[in-house]
Amino acid sequence: MALRSKRSQAPKPIFRSKAAAAADYSDVYCERCGSGESPGELLLCDKCDKGFHLFCLRPILVAVPKGSWFCPSCSKQKKPNSFPLVQTKIIDFFRIQRSTESIQKPSQDIQKKRKRSSSLVVSKKRRKLLPFSPSEDPERRLEQMRSLATALTASGTEFSNELTYRPAMAPRSVNQPALEKGGMQVLSKEDTETLNLCKRMMNRGEWPPLMVVFDPKEGFTVEADRFIKDLTIITEYVGDVDYLKNRENDDGDSMMTLLHADNPSQSLVICPDMRGNIARFINGINNHSQEGRKKQNLKCVRYDVDGECRVLLIANRDISKGERLYYDYNGYEHEYPTEHFV
């Protein structure tokens, strides 16, 4: 479940009574829907003073952003510039191991893994996870990586494919699955090998067949660029690890629960706003509509992996090429506001 905080409306004038301050905002209405209802979710542009509901904006905003905010007209919102389709630049951006074959052809490891596990996939009861299957065309893989580099650059995020532990945040030593409230399921040895295989492939430039696209309603979102089988590991949710107590008033829009401890002071979250991967661009479903729930094709699962809490996004059914990826942001704590998701 991705935790996101909600803040109040734009700051009220200082040294004014509550009644006077409320009166100043009584005639504010949303430029998109024309309604003045839900005043707590009306956001005022710091340049033109026009109002917009958070949920009427496209892409939707989940919380009032920190600092100044400008509406689409005043900010002259544009489609993000594409990252250069240059192999050397892409290799450097993602710190891919340099090799003449690293981005030319898929590794034989995945073929060996498929042969070894193919007889076990027939029965879903065994729940054996599958490694992703990279696109065979090296040019297409470059396009996929460029799409992610474009999204990360536009959001000011440094690429990282691992959990990161920074000074003044939670240290690695506190990431203990034993603290999970109710216990945490352990990733089996075979599934851990599959996860490690996925990591090795990515280090060599063999990436999941995913494309990040920009949608005017949803913002950056992720599509399957080829058929993906049920139970395939899509990606790990990564970023800076911090204590939840340090982030309760944070307006970060992509925080993910890592450890839900009995003692709240020990609970941890993943914060991908500074460092992250493709996981931060995968959207959530609208839990309040049947159509929204039908979109879900991934599940978000917390695992104990070799004594460390990790979060994986896994296909929970077969996914067709061109289908957008969605999972339930409220898979655990049911605190995320999704009623306005498209």
TrEMBL record:
EC number: 2.1.1.369
Principal localisation: nucleus
Catalysed conversion reaction: L-lysyl(27)-[histone H3] + S-adenosyl-L-methionine = N(6)-methyl-L-lysyl(27)-[histone H3] + S-adenosyl-L-homocysteine + H(+)
SUPFAM superfamilies with a match to the protein in the record: FYVE/PHD zinc finger, SET domain
CDD domains per record: PHD_RSF1 (cd15543), SET_ATXR5_6-like (cd10539)
SMART domains, sorted: PHD, SET
Bias type Basic residues, positions: 112-123
Domain SET per the UniProt entry, residue ranges: 208-330
Residues covered by the PHD-type domain: 27-77
One cellular component term from this protein's GO annotations in UniProt: nucleus
Protein localization: Nucleus
A molecular-function term among this protein's GO annotations: zinc ion binding
GO BP terms, alphabetized: methylation; regulation of cell cycle; regulation of DNA replication
EC primary class: transferase
Disordered: annotated segments: 104-123
Keywords of this entry: Chromatin regulator, Metal-binding, Methyltransferase, Nucleus, S-adenosyl-L-methionine, Transferase, Zinc, Zinc-finger
Pfam families to which the protein is assigned, alphabetical: PHD, SET
The protein's name: [histone H3]-lysine(27) N-methyltransferase
Organism: Salix viminalis (Common osier)
